[in-house]
Amino acid sequence: MSLAGKKVIILVERDYQDLEVWYPLLRLREEGAEVIPVGSGSSKEYTGKYGYPIEAGAAAEEINVDDIDAVVIPGGWAPDYLRRYPAVVALVKEAFGKGKVVASICHGGSLLVSAGVAKGKRLTSFMAIRDDLVTAGADFVDEEVVRDGNLITSRKPDDLPAFCKQIIASLS
Questions:
Q1: Can 83 be counted among the known catalytic residues?
Q2: Beta pairing partners, 146
Q3: How confident is the model at residue 1, as a pLDDT?
Q4: Could you confirm whether domain 7-171 is CATH 3.40.50.880?
Q5: pLDDT tens, 90-141?
Q6: 138 burial class (0-12, 13-18, 19+ CB within 10 angstroms)?
Q7: Of the residues 107, 121, 155, 156, which is catalytic?
């Protein structure tokens, strides 16, 4: 259990991409990490794009960044909702600034833009938000997983094995 003692939060909101929440959640728990779904605070339970529900263990405003090791930002349409909550944006920005692992997949990159952490970073995402990332100053590349310092990014559900391997390696 290489991640025993590590605490990871996965951000959730309505219409999250089901695999991009559940695959990392279960994989990181399998490695021994404590993984907590954290919502915007708009609800206690959120439903994914394909109807799978998840209960938030906390709201973003309740999280002390000093108590966590990583933030995972899944895609789907959830990031478009998450970025509307100042507490969520502040959480991502603070975690990044304190050197915590910030891992984003698919449309999760839109939250990186709102948090102001994409500028000057080499990263990837789902192609639909490529222009948003480039406009925010990112060096966009089309690769299954990209690590730039404490920032880890991937493009789509097919990239989840490489995405999770990189998160685990970064936290080990």
A1: no
A2: 153
A3: 64
A4: yes
A5: 999 999 999 999 999 999 999 999 999 999 999 999 999 999 999 999 999 9
A6: buried
A7: 107
